[in-house]
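Quick one: C-alpha coordinates for this chain, please?
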Amino acid sequence: MSTTSDRPARAGAPFSLRLPYWMLTVALIAALVVVWDLYVRLFEVSPLILPPPAEVGAALIDLLGEQKTYMHIATTLIETLVGFAIAVVVGVGLGVLLGKLPWLDAMLNPLIVGLQVMPKIALVPLFIVWFGFGISSKIVMAAVLSFFPIMTNTILGIKSIERGHRDVMLSLNASRGATFRDLDLPSALPFILTGMEVGIVLAIIGAIVGEYLGGSEGLGYMAVAALNAFDVRSMFAVILLLTVLGFALYFAVALLRRRLTPWHGSAARGDTP
Protein backbone atom coordinates (compact mmCIF):
# COMPACT_ATOMS: atom_id res chain seq x y z
CA MET A 1 0.00 0.00 0.00
CA SER A 2 1.38 3.40 -0.87
CA THR A 3 1.72 5.98 1.89
CA THR A 4 1.11 9.71 1.76
CA SER A 5 4.87 10.26 1.77
CA ASP A 6 5.09 8.44 -1.58
CA ARG A 7 2.53 10.65 -3.29
CA PRO A 8 4.47 13.94 -3.44
CA ALA A 9 7.44 12.11 -4.97
CA ARG A 10 5.26 10.51 -7.63
CA ALA A 11 3.37 13.74 -8.23
CA GLY A 12 6.62 15.59 -8.77
CA ALA A 13 8.13 12.88 -10.99
CA PRO A 14 8.73 13.65 -14.67
CA PHE A 15 5.82 12.81 -16.94
CA SER A 16 7.91 10.21 -18.80
CA LEU A 17 8.44 8.22 -15.62
CA ARG A 18 4.70 7.75 -15.22
CA LEU A 19 4.32 6.14 -18.68
CA PRO A 20 5.36 2.64 -19.74
CA TYR A 21 8.48 2.66 -21.86
CA TRP A 22 6.73 0.94 -24.74
CA MET A 23 4.28 3.83 -24.97
CA LEU A 24 7.16 6.28 -25.21
CA THR A 25 8.70 4.16 -27.96
CA VAL A 26 5.42 4.11 -29.92
CA ALA A 27 5.11 7.88 -29.49
CA LEU A 28 8.66 8.38 -30.79
CA ILE A 29 8.00 6.20 -33.84
CA ALA A 30 4.77 8.08 -34.54
CA ALA A 31 6.63 11.38 -34.29
CA LEU A 32 9.27 10.18 -36.74
CA VAL A 33 6.57 9.13 -39.22
CA VAL A 34 4.94 12.56 -38.92
CA VAL A 35 8.28 14.29 -39.52
CA TRP A 36 8.88 12.01 -42.51
CA ASP A 37 5.50 12.86 -44.00
CA LEU A 38 5.92 16.60 -43.41
CA TYR A 39 9.40 16.58 -44.95
CA VAL A 40 8.17 14.84 -48.09
CA ARG A 41 5.22 17.19 -48.49
CA LEU A 42 6.88 20.51 -47.61
CA PHE A 43 9.98 19.96 -49.74
CA GLU A 44 8.08 18.11 -52.51
CA VAL A 45 10.48 15.18 -52.50
CA SER A 46 10.11 12.85 -55.46
CA PRO A 47 8.50 9.48 -54.66
CA LEU A 48 11.41 7.88 -56.51
CA ILE A 49 13.70 9.17 -53.77
CA LEU A 50 11.54 9.06 -50.65
CA PRO A 51 7.88 8.03 -50.93
CA PRO A 52 5.44 9.30 -48.28
CA PRO A 53 4.54 6.97 -45.39
CA ALA A 54 1.02 6.39 -46.74
CA GLU A 55 2.35 4.99 -50.01
CA VAL A 56 4.83 2.76 -48.19
CA GLY A 57 2.00 1.49 -45.98
CA ALA A 58 -0.13 0.73 -49.04
CA ALA A 59 2.79 -1.14 -50.65
CA LEU A 60 3.28 -3.11 -47.43
CA ILE A 61 -0.37 -4.13 -47.42
CA ASP A 62 -0.06 -5.23 -51.05
CA LEU A 63 3.00 -7.34 -50.24
CA LEU A 64 1.29 -8.97 -47.27
CA GLY A 65 -1.59 -9.90 -49.55
CA GLU A 66 0.67 -11.98 -51.80
CA GLN A 67 1.47 -15.57 -50.89
CA LYS A 68 5.00 -15.38 -52.34
CA THR A 69 5.90 -12.76 -49.72
CA TYR A 70 5.46 -15.30 -46.95
CA MET A 71 7.61 -17.78 -48.86
CA HIS A 72 10.39 -15.19 -49.02
CA ILE A 73 9.97 -14.43 -45.31
CA ALA A 74 10.20 -18.14 -44.50
CA THR A 75 13.37 -18.46 -46.59
CA THR A 76 15.09 -15.58 -44.78
CA LEU A 77 13.90 -16.87 -41.42
CA ILE A 78 15.25 -20.38 -42.07
CA GLU A 79 18.61 -19.04 -43.26
CA THR A 80 18.90 -16.83 -40.19
CA LEU A 81 17.85 -19.38 -37.58
CA VAL A 82 19.89 -22.28 -38.96
CA GLY A 83 22.99 -20.10 -39.30
CA PHE A 84 22.44 -18.71 -35.82
CA ALA A 85 21.99 -22.19 -34.35
CA ILE A 86 25.27 -23.32 -35.91
CA ALA A 87 27.01 -20.22 -34.53
CA VAL A 88 25.63 -20.87 -31.03
CA VAL A 89 26.77 -24.51 -30.95
CA VAL A 90 30.22 -23.86 -32.39
CA GLY A 91 30.73 -20.50 -30.68
CA VAL A 92 29.77 -21.66 -27.20
CA GLY A 93 31.74 -24.90 -27.55
CA LEU A 94 34.91 -23.21 -28.77
CA GLY A 95 34.46 -20.35 -26.32
CA VAL A 96 34.28 -22.72 -23.35
CA LEU A 97 37.35 -24.58 -24.61
CA LEU A 98 39.41 -21.41 -25.07
CA GLY A 99 38.20 -19.98 -21.78
CA LYS A 100 39.29 -23.04 -19.83
CA LEU A 101 42.59 -23.52 -21.69
CA PRO A 102 44.57 -20.25 -21.51
CA TRP A 103 47.49 -21.67 -23.49
CA LEU A 104 45.19 -22.56 -26.38
CA ASP A 105 43.55 -19.14 -26.20
CA ALA A 106 46.96 -17.43 -26.35
CA MET A 107 48.00 -19.54 -29.32
CA LEU A 108 44.82 -19.00 -31.34
CA ASN A 109 44.19 -15.38 -30.34
CA PRO A 110 46.13 -13.78 -33.26
CA LEU A 111 44.22 -15.97 -35.72
CA ILE A 112 40.88 -15.16 -34.10
CA VAL A 113 41.61 -11.43 -34.11
CA GLY A 114 42.64 -11.62 -37.77
CA LEU A 115 39.41 -13.37 -38.69
CA GLN A 116 37.37 -10.85 -36.69
CA VAL A 117 38.84 -7.79 -38.41
CA MET A 118 38.46 -9.37 -41.85
CA PRO A 119 35.52 -7.79 -43.72
CA LYS A 120 33.05 -10.66 -43.78
CA ILE A 121 31.06 -9.19 -46.66
CA ALA A 122 34.03 -9.84 -48.93
CA LEU A 123 33.60 -13.56 -48.25
CA VAL A 124 30.14 -13.72 -49.82
CA PRO A 125 31.40 -14.34 -53.40
CA LEU A 126 33.68 -17.06 -52.06
CA PHE A 127 30.82 -18.73 -50.19
CA ILE A 128 28.72 -18.60 -53.35
CA VAL A 129 31.51 -20.35 -55.26
CA TRP A 130 31.85 -22.99 -52.54
CA PHE A 131 28.19 -23.53 -51.59
CA GLY A 132 26.29 -22.29 -54.63
CA PHE A 133 23.50 -19.76 -55.06
CA GLY A 134 21.06 -21.70 -52.91
CA ILE A 135 20.23 -21.47 -49.24
CA SER A 136 23.50 -23.03 -48.06
CA SER A 137 25.70 -20.00 -48.79
CA LYS A 138 23.29 -17.72 -46.90
CA ILE A 139 23.28 -20.05 -43.89
CA VAL A 140 27.08 -20.06 -43.84
CA MET A 141 27.17 -16.27 -44.06
CA ALA A 142 24.69 -15.93 -41.21
CA ALA A 143 26.71 -18.38 -39.11
CA VAL A 144 30.03 -16.64 -39.78
CA LEU A 145 28.75 -13.18 -38.86
CA SER A 146 27.04 -14.30 -35.65
CA PHE A 147 29.79 -16.68 -34.54
CA PHE A 148 32.37 -14.21 -33.22
CA PRO A 149 30.29 -12.23 -30.68
CA ILE A 150 28.95 -15.48 -29.26
CA MET A 151 32.42 -17.02 -28.96
CA THR A 152 34.10 -13.93 -27.51
CA ASN A 153 31.35 -13.41 -24.93
CA THR A 154 31.55 -17.07 -23.94
CA ILE A 155 35.33 -16.76 -23.41
CA LEU A 156 34.77 -13.64 -21.32
CA GLY A 157 32.11 -15.39 -19.25
CA ILE A 158 34.34 -18.40 -18.51
CA LYS A 159 37.31 -16.19 -17.63
CA SER A 160 35.17 -14.01 -15.35
CA ILE A 161 34.45 -16.84 -12.90
CA GLU A 162 36.13 -16.05 -9.59
CA ARG A 163 38.96 -18.28 -8.49
CA GLY A 164 37.35 -18.72 -5.08
CA HIS A 165 34.30 -20.34 -6.64
CA ARG A 166 36.50 -22.85 -8.43
CA ASP A 167 38.31 -23.58 -5.17
CA VAL A 168 34.99 -24.38 -3.54
CA MET A 169 34.19 -26.89 -6.25
CA LEU A 170 37.63 -28.45 -5.84
CA SER A 171 37.13 -28.72 -2.08
CA LEU A 172 33.87 -30.57 -2.76
CA ASN A 173 35.70 -33.01 -5.08
CA ALA A 174 33.31 -32.07 -7.87
CA SER A 175 33.96 -33.70 -11.21
CA ARG A 176 34.68 -31.67 -14.33
CA GLY A 177 31.18 -32.32 -15.58
CA ALA A 178 29.62 -31.21 -12.31
CA THR A 179 31.83 -28.11 -12.22
CA PHE A 180 30.79 -27.18 -15.72
CA ARG A 181 27.10 -27.81 -14.99
CA ASP A 182 26.93 -26.11 -11.60
CA LEU A 183 29.53 -23.34 -11.93
CA ASP A 184 30.86 -22.65 -15.42
CA LEU A 185 27.62 -22.68 -17.37
CA PRO A 186 25.45 -20.67 -14.88
CA SER A 187 28.21 -18.09 -14.40
CA ALA A 188 28.89 -17.66 -18.11
CA LEU A 189 25.24 -17.80 -19.18
CA PRO A 190 24.58 -14.02 -18.96
CA PHE A 191 27.63 -13.39 -21.15
CA ILE A 192 26.61 -16.09 -23.61
CA LEU A 193 23.07 -14.74 -23.94
CA THR A 194 24.39 -11.22 -24.42
CA GLY A 195 26.55 -12.52 -27.26
CA MET A 196 23.49 -14.26 -28.68
CA GLU A 197 21.58 -10.98 -28.69
CA VAL A 198 24.29 -9.44 -30.84
CA GLY A 199 24.64 -12.63 -32.87
CA ILE A 200 20.99 -12.87 -33.91
CA VAL A 201 21.13 -9.36 -35.35
CA LEU A 202 24.30 -10.17 -37.28
CA ALA A 203 22.81 -13.47 -38.44
CA ILE A 204 19.90 -11.79 -40.19
CA ILE A 205 22.32 -9.24 -41.68
CA GLY A 206 24.43 -12.09 -43.04
CA ALA A 207 21.43 -13.81 -44.57
CA ILE A 208 20.20 -10.59 -46.19
CA VAL A 209 23.61 -9.67 -47.59
CA GLY A 210 23.90 -13.15 -49.08
CA GLU A 211 20.49 -12.70 -50.71
CA TYR A 212 21.48 -9.29 -52.02
CA LEU A 213 24.57 -10.55 -53.81
CA GLY A 214 23.53 -13.99 -54.98
CA GLY A 215 20.02 -15.09 -54.24
CA SER A 216 16.72 -15.80 -55.92
CA GLU A 217 14.66 -16.09 -52.72
CA GLY A 218 14.26 -14.22 -49.48
CA LEU A 219 13.52 -10.66 -48.39
CA GLY A 220 16.94 -9.48 -49.55
CA TYR A 221 16.15 -10.72 -53.04
CA MET A 222 12.77 -8.95 -52.88
CA ALA A 223 14.48 -5.66 -52.01
CA VAL A 224 16.92 -6.01 -54.93
CA ALA A 225 14.09 -6.93 -57.31
CA ALA A 226 12.11 -3.85 -56.20
CA LEU A 227 15.17 -1.66 -56.69
CA ASN A 228 15.79 -3.03 -60.19
CA ALA A 229 12.17 -2.27 -61.06
CA PHE A 230 12.48 1.27 -59.59
CA ASP A 231 9.64 0.38 -57.23
CA VAL A 232 10.85 2.43 -54.28
CA ARG A 233 7.55 2.01 -52.42
CA SER A 234 7.91 -1.77 -52.37
CA MET A 235 11.59 -1.49 -51.45
CA PHE A 236 10.72 0.56 -48.37
CA ALA A 237 7.97 -1.94 -47.56
CA VAL A 238 10.47 -4.81 -47.70
CA ILE A 239 12.81 -2.85 -45.43
CA LEU A 240 9.96 -2.51 -42.94
CA LEU A 241 9.37 -6.26 -43.10
CA LEU A 242 13.06 -6.85 -42.44
CA THR A 243 12.96 -4.47 -39.50
CA VAL A 244 9.99 -6.23 -37.94
CA LEU A 245 11.56 -9.64 -38.50
CA GLY A 246 14.86 -8.54 -36.99
CA PHE A 247 13.13 -6.99 -33.99
CA ALA A 248 11.06 -10.13 -33.41
CA LEU A 249 14.17 -12.33 -33.43
CA TYR A 250 16.05 -9.97 -31.12
CA PHE A 251 13.05 -9.78 -28.79
CA ALA A 252 12.89 -13.58 -28.62
CA VAL A 253 16.56 -13.87 -27.63
CA ALA A 254 16.26 -10.99 -25.15
CA LEU A 255 13.20 -12.63 -23.61
CA LEU A 256 15.14 -15.90 -23.39
CA ARG A 257 17.91 -14.07 -21.51
CA ARG A 258 15.42 -12.65 -19.06
CA ARG A 259 13.81 -16.05 -18.48
CA LEU A 260 17.08 -17.97 -18.08
CA THR A 261 18.90 -15.37 -15.96
CA PRO A 262 16.23 -13.60 -13.88
CA TRP A 263 18.81 -13.15 -11.12
CA HIS A 264 21.15 -11.11 -13.31
CA GLY A 265 21.23 -7.34 -12.90
CA SER A 266 20.24 -6.53 -16.49
CA ALA A 267 17.08 -8.64 -16.24
CA ALA A 268 16.18 -7.20 -12.85
CA ARG A 269 16.49 -3.65 -14.21
CA GLY A 270 14.23 -4.49 -17.13
CA ASP A 271 16.86 -3.81 -19.77
CA THR A 272 15.38 -6.60 -21.83
CA PRO A 273 11.73 -7.14 -22.75
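Confidence is low (pLDDT under 50) at residues 1-13, 268-273.
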